[in-house]
Amino acid sequence: MSTQRDEPTNAPPSRRRLSGDKRRALLMDAALAVFAERGYEGASIGQIARAAGVSKALIYEHFPSKRDLHLELLRRHGRELEARLQRALVDHHSPEEATRSAIDAFLQFVAEHRDAWRILVAEVHEPAMREEVARLGERIAGLVAARIAASYGGDPARPTHGDELVARMFVGGIEALGKWWTTHPETPRERLTEIAFDLYWEGAASLMERARSRSRATPSRRRGRQ
User: Fold this and answer.
1) How far apart are the C-alpha atoms of 56 and 62, rounded to whole Å?
2) A Gene Ontology biological process annotation (predicted)?
C-alpha cells in the first residue's frame, strides 16, 4: 500500500510556490489591513507577519523596515487614486462633466479601497509619510488646476493663481467629503456625488471667474508700480 498522501485539490497554493511579485503583493495586502486597523505607530512587523502567515524574516527580505513598507503602500494607492482622477478629468469635454466625474471617481476609490483611504488620510508623525501624502495632494491639485485652465482657454501647463486656488479648494473639499463618508457609509455613492457636485458647482463657476479675473489683473497692477 502506498504511503504517499494526496494533496487536497482545493488546498491553497503553497506560499513557497508564489512568485516574488505575488508574495510581495500578499505581504502588502496584509500590511494594509494591519495599518488601517492599528495605525502606523500601533502596527508592528510581527503583527503584519502573523496576518500574512509568514515569518518576520520574510517580510524583511522584501522591505527593509516598517517605514519602507508603509511608504510603498502610500505610493501604490496614491498612484491609483491619481490615475483615476486624471482619467475622469480628461475623458469629458465640459467642465461640469469633468467635475462630476472626478467626484464620482474619487468616491468610487474610497468605496473600493477603504483601508487604503484610511492610511492616506491618517495622522502620522513620521515626516516621510507626511511628505509623501503632501506630494500626492500637490500632484492632484496640479491635475485639477490644469483642467480648469484648459476649460477657460488657458495653458494647462501654466495655470493661473486663480486656477490653483480653486483646484486646492476642490481637493480639500473632496478629502473632507471622503473622511465624512467613512463614518456615514449608509449614504449611496451616487447620491453623495450629486450633492457634492451641486454644492461645489453652484459656487465654483462664479468663484473661478472672480479668481481668474483677479489673477489676470495682478501682473498689470504690478507693472503699473514699476
Assistant:
1) 10
2) negative regulation of DNA-templated transcription
Instruction: Please state, in angstroms and rounded to a whole number, the distance separating the CA atoms of residues 164 and 151.
Output: 13
Crossing angle of helices 66-90/20-42, nearest 10°? 100
- What's the burial of 157, exposed, middle or buried (CB within 10 Å: 0-12/13-18/19+)? exposed
Q: What is the CATH number of domain 71-221?
A: 1.10.357.10
DSSP state of 225: H
Residue with cell string 490615475: 83
Give the whole-angstrom CA distance, residue 176 versus residue 162. 21
Distance CA 139, CA 131 (A): 12
Q: What is the pLDDT of residues 105-136, one digit of tens each?
A: 999 999 999 999 999 999 999 999 999 999 99
- Taking domain 17-63, whether its CATH number is 3.40.50.150 is answered by no
Backbone angles phi, psi at 25, to 5 degrees: -65, -40
Comparing CA positions, the residue from 96, 91, 161, 106 lying closest to residue 137 is 106
Report the predicted TM-score, pTM, of the whole model to 2 decimal places: 0.82
The DSSP output letter for 186 is T
Which residue ranges make up each domain of the chain? 17-63, 71-221
